[in-house]
Amino acid sequence: MRKIHISEAKSGDILAADIFGVNGAILLPRGAALTNQYIRSLQMKGIQYICINDEQTDDIVPHPQSNDPATNNEKNV
C-alpha cells in the first residue's frame, strides 16, 4: 500500500483502502480499479489522498480514511 495525492492517481490504480465520504458512506471500496471518471469525482468531493496497491509496500496495513477534517488531520497537508 502506498498513500498518494489524488493528482498522482492513474486510471487502473487499485485502491488499497476504502474511501469514505463526509457522511461516512463508502465512496469507493478497497480493491476498486480507478478510472478517470472516479478520479475526477473524488477530486470534486475534496478527496486529497488515497491509498493504492503497490508491490513494494504490500506489507503496510491501511487505516480507515475519513473526509471529516476533525478526524483527518492529513487532509490539510
Describe the 3D structure.
- Residues 64-77 have a biased composition (Polar residues).
- Residues 58-77 are annotated as: Disordered.
- The chain is an alpha+beta fold and 77 residues long.
- The protein has a single domain (2-60), classed as Molybdopterin biosynthesis moea protein, domain 2, CATH 3.90.105.
- It has one helix at 36-44, and strands spanning 2-5, 19-20, 26-28, 49-52.
- Strands 1-4 form a two-stranded antiparallel ribbon.
- A hairpin with a 5-residue loop joins strand 2 (19-20) and strand 3 (26-28).
- It is globular.
- Residues 70-77 have low confidence and may be disordered.
Structural key phrases:
disordered C terminus; Molybdopterin biosynthesis moea protein, domain 2; 1 helix; 17% strand; 12% helix; 77 residues
Strand content: 15-25%
Strand elements, count? 4
**pLDDT average, as an integer?**
83
CATH topology: Molybdopterin biosynthesis moea protein, domain 2
The whole-angstrom Rg is 12 Å
CATH superfamily: Molybdopterin biosynthesis moea protein, domain 2
Low-confidence parts: 70-77
Q: Largest sheet, if any?
A: 2 strands, antiparallel
State the helix count: 1
Could you say what the CATH architecture is?
A: Alpha-Beta Complex
Q: Provide the number of structural domains.
A: 1
Order of strands, main sheet, comes to: 1-4
Which bin fits the share of residues in helices? 10-25%
Please provide the ordered H/E string of secondary-structure elements.
EEEHE
Termini gap: 19 Å
Biased composition (Polar residues): 64-77
Region (Disordered): 58-77
